[in-house]
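Working notes for the structural subgroup meeting. M.R. asked for a predicted model of this chain before we commit to crystallization trials. I am recording the input and output together here so anyone reviewing the notebook later can reproduce the run.

Input as submitted:
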Amino acid sequence: MANQPQKIVYKLVLTGGPCGGKTTGQSRLSTFFENLGWKVFRVPETATVLLSGGIKFADLSPDEAVKFQENLLKTMIQIENTFFELGRTCQRNCLIICDRGAMDASAFISKETWESMLHANNWHSVELRDNRYNHIVHMVTAANGAEDFYSTEDHACRSEGMELARELDYKAAAAWIGHPYFDVIDNSSDFDKKMNRLIACVCQRVGIDTGDRLNVNSKKRKFLVKTPLVPDSEFPPFQDFDVVHNYLQSDYRKAQVRLRKRGQKGHWSYIHTMRKLHPTNGQSVEIRTQLTHRDYLNMLPQRDDAHFTIFKKRRCFIHENQYYQLDIYRQPTHPRCRGLVLLETYSAAYDQDALLASLPKFLVIEKEVTGDPAYSMYNLSLKEDWKTSTKYYAGSDANGRGKHITNGHSTHKCNGHAKVNGHVGKENGHVDKVNEHSCNGHAAVNGHGPMNGHSEEAKSSREQNGHNNVKLTNGIDARTPLKT
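Returned structure, recorded in C-alpha cell form:
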C-alpha cells in the first residue's frame, strides 16, 4: 500500500574510550526498542572476541600487530554483515547496535598504516565511515569527567591507565569525525541521566517521540492499579512479555542480585542484575548484564531459598506520547502478590494532580507507590512474614545506608485522600500503620488485601565499555566479577 510506512533498519555504532558505559547503553537501548515492538540485534565487540581467545596485543611484533588489526577489521565487517542481512530480511523495524565499528580500528594504528591497509583491501574511509552505519554515538570514558569512577579492576582484557584511557577516547572520537550523524554523550550528568540522554539521542535521530520519559529531570514513577483490567481491545497497541525473576544468594545488606528471563512466544532474553549501594554516597545503582541461555541455567542453582520466584506479564504501550509498562503479577507466588498490578512510567511532572490526570483513563489508579518498600519486588518475593523477616528491606536512611527492619516495619502511611485519575477517593480516611492493620504481616488497604508492589527496577547502572568491570560515573560506582 502507498501509505504503508517503510520498515526501518537502523545501524547504530556505540563507541568510546574505556569505561564509557557502552554495554549498559546497549542493554538500555535494547529494552527500550524491544518494548516498542522493534527487533534488536547486538553485534559483539570483535576485539573482545579475539582477545578473549588468548591473544595478548602487547606480545605481538609490529608486523603481527598490523596483521592482527587487518584481520580484526575483516572479521568485524563479516560479523556485521551477518547481522545487517538479518535486519534486511526481518519483518519488523530493526535496530542493530554495533559495539564499536569499522573506523575504530584506525584509532589503534598510525595514519600511514591505516591508509596502507585500506589500499591493500580496496576499502575507503567514506564507505567504512559514512555509508556503512546510520548513526555514531561516542560514549565518553569515565576517565574524562568522572575520574573517581574509572577502574580496570577485575577485567581480563583491559589495563589502560587514566591518561591512556583519555588518549584512546580522543582517538576513538576522532576516527568518526565526518560521519553525518555523530553524537557525543559526555559525563556532564549522573550516569542514569547519561543513559537517558543516549536513548533520547537515538530516538531523535530515528524520529521517535518519547514525550518527557527521557527528560533529564524525569524519574520512574509507580502506581497501584485496581483490578479487574479493561479488555485488551481498550488498550492502545501493546507488546506483552512473559517475565520471570529469581533472586540469587547474596549479602542482602550490601546487594540484591537477581536473574530475569523475559520473552515472547518461547523466545527469551536473559539479564543478570545486581542492585547495590554506593559505599560513600548511598545512591542505589543497578548493573545489568546480558546473559546467554547457558549462563542463565548455570546461575539458576544460586537461587535464594528465602524468596519465591516472581512471575509477571509485562505489557508495554504508549499513550498520548508517554511510554508505560504495566506489570501484572501471576501465580504461583506469595499471597501478597495475588491480583497485584503496577503501572510504571518516567515523568518529569512535579505537580501530582497534573501527573495523575495525564495517566491512562482506561486504568483505575488507586495511588502512587513510588519508593514505597511495601511495593518492592525484593520484599514481595520474600517467603517470610515481613514482621519477623530479617531480610525485609525498608529503603535507605538519611545517610544513604540500607534499612533492614526486624520484628516489625517502619511506618507506611496511606494518604487520607487518594486521587484516582483526578477523582478523589478515600483510603480508610485516616493513616494506617503497618503494625496495626495487617494481612499475613502486610499492610492492608480498607481492610481488603495486602498493599503490594515491587521496587524501582532501573535506578542507574554503569558498565565498562562492554567488559567485565563496572564503574558508574558522577557519584555512582559499582563493580561485579560477573560479565557486566
